[in-house]
Automatic annotation (TrEMBL):
Pfam families (alphabetical): MFS_2
GO molecular function: symporter activity
Top-level taxon of origin: Bacteria
Protein's UniProt name: Sodium:melibiose symporter
Coiled coil: none
Entry's Gene Ontology BP terms: carbohydrate transport
Amino acid sequence: MATVLNAAWEDRATAPPPASRLPAGRLLAFSAIALPVTAAQMPLNVYLPAIFAQHYGVPLAVLGTIFLIEKIWGAIADPIIGSLSDRTRSRFGRRRSWIAAGGILFGLSGLLLFFPLAGVTPLYLGLVLFAFYLGWSMIQIPFLAWSGEISGDYNERTRIATYQVVVGSASLLLVLVLPTIVDQIRPGDGPLKLGVMGGLLLITLVPSLILTLRAFPEPPLPARDVPRLPFGQTVRLVGGNPLLMRILASDFAVTLGQNIRGTLFVFFVSSYMGLPHWASGLFLLQFVFGITAGPIWMRIGYRLGKHRTAVLGELVQVAINLGLLLVVPGQLGLLIALTVAQGFAQGSGNLMLRSMVADVADRHRLDTGEDRTALFFSVFSISMKAAMAAAVGVALPLVAWLGFDPTSAENTPEALRGLLLVFALGPAIAHLVSAALVHGFPLDAAAHAEIRKSLDQRDAAPAALND
């Protein structure tokens, strides 16, 4: 399978030179942890709010507040874990020990989240989400940092990120197949749908952890310890890096747009379109085509550069979301076409922006002599989680304010029109902002090659002196 994927994905004229390419099979193994971690993303952003509101009686406004607070907590935990991971000196490695411990917490809290005890209360949901997001951060931040460290090549980093995006897309496909089957067998059974999605996450967690932790050796520890910074200095360090801030702001915008769409998708298809039995199927269709999107955007990135490819992908998504304004209730043709197009476009901005973070971390290491890769990826993750929180915490109350009630058998035409406008215009505006923020990014392939050359020369100097 790895050989087939490798042959299908890579454009030999534009891919990294053979000497710098990592083995495809090992990259797939390294990316395995993206399967359970990404499998949790879709239920959290799409299904859990609706299921806990409709089947467990948690009020919509309370639910939005809980998810908002918990995702803000996850964003706070990220830089703490990033800084600790950068400073960790263990015989198990800076990254491995955190990923393994996070996997245990992630699995235990996931069991309570996807198989909730009888009589779910807001307190129960809040505590379980608190532990779940902490475990998620303990896996994700060190893993992203490790991803940026296994290669210093500009285009190879795009390839590494592509493998992770494709594994993640395959995971989303799997997690969508299961609720689609449930919809056909037992329509409206939210707890069963929740259980099968949680089962996928828990079954894949242990083997994925083993594959990821054994795929590559960790790079040597830095020659000197990374100094601990007080919170204020950390904020100034991040806020004073204009390249990193542009990436963060652009990622916030693109993730906000994606999650406004994801949060409202079930409501849109069920209530506005009047086709509740199509909700899971359309999401499934989107991610079937999304599996092929990563390799396509990787090749475009080789030719255009990362920031230009990100701009192109975001503008494509602007057009797709504006097209939703033309969708007519009960008529599937245009909605299916836009869903397929969304599948091809999905992840384009996320893929390029994630790869760019490691390049900016290289620039910081050249300027300061300090390796803060995990810290940089942690604040990148903050932008993602903050955008998720904003999408749920703003989109749900906004459509409720416009009169939409997910428990009502019949919403007014005005309420449904408000749902359509938020569903279509919210993502379109967000993707446009994302494109504007990353346009003209100065750290391209040529600039990064000079940075890596200087880093390699500086890293080789102590070794030459010792010889």
